[in-house]
Amino acid sequence: MNLNEIQDLIKFVAKSGVTEVEIEQKDFKITIKSEGKNKGTDTPIIVQAAAPAPLPVAPVAAAPVAPVAAAPAATPAAPAADDDSKYITIKSPMIGTFYRSPGPDKDSFVNVGDNINKGDTICIIEAMKLFNEIESEVAGKIVKVLVDDASPVEYDQPLFLVDPA
């Protein structure tokens, strides 16, 4: 489909009152959505996406090389997982937005290296415009902050690693 055909199609959609037209061919897909004259505009919204290019096929001889290269990479990851096993993970008690400080210009509740006690406020999670202070249920030293400030979090998502020693 060339540019002139696309422009003709857009004009047709705008004049006909049709709200959506979708055309899919083997090498591309085009969707034209118009809000219509009832919505205050008769300019269509155009979304066009090309079909993904086929992935190159790897030669059969290269297949045995990949497992050999992947095996050494997996081995160093195992000790790192063992190092984290000695730490306690503080998880999110709810879905919301994670904040490390009480305000944009305020200091963080806790930082890596800080010692915390049970009941200390460690972060805030905003859920439905309510700011919920999250208190630590363990005492120890913050080893790692696992979530970026102002990021969405899920229920039971790890937030902090704490060394209880």
Task: Explain how this protein is built.
By secondary structure, the chain is α+β, with helices and mostly antiparallel strands. The chain folds into two domains: 3-50; 86-163, Beta Barrel (OB fold (Dihydrolipoamide Acetyltransferase, E2P)). Helix content is 21%, strand content 35%. The chain is built from two helices and eleven strands, in the order αβββαββββββββ. It has a four-stranded antiparallel sheet, with no helix packed on it. Strands 8-7-5-10 form a four-stranded antiparallel sheet, with no helix packed on it. β1 (20-25) and β2 (28-34) form a beta hairpin. The protein is elongated, with a radius of gyration of 27 Å.
The third-level CATH topology of the largest domain is: OB fold (Dihydrolipoamide Acetyltransferase, E2P)
- Which CATH architecture of the largest domain would you pick? Beta Barrel
CATH level-1 class of the largest domain: Mainly Beta
Distance between the termini: 67 Å
Helical content stands at: 10-25%
Subunit arrangement of the protein: single chain
Task: Describe this structure in a few short sentences.
This protein has 165 residues and is an alpha+beta fold.
Features of the shown structure:
165 residues, alpha+beta, OB fold (Dihydrolipoamide Acetyltransferase, E2P), 2 domains, 4-stranded antiparallel sheet, 11 strands
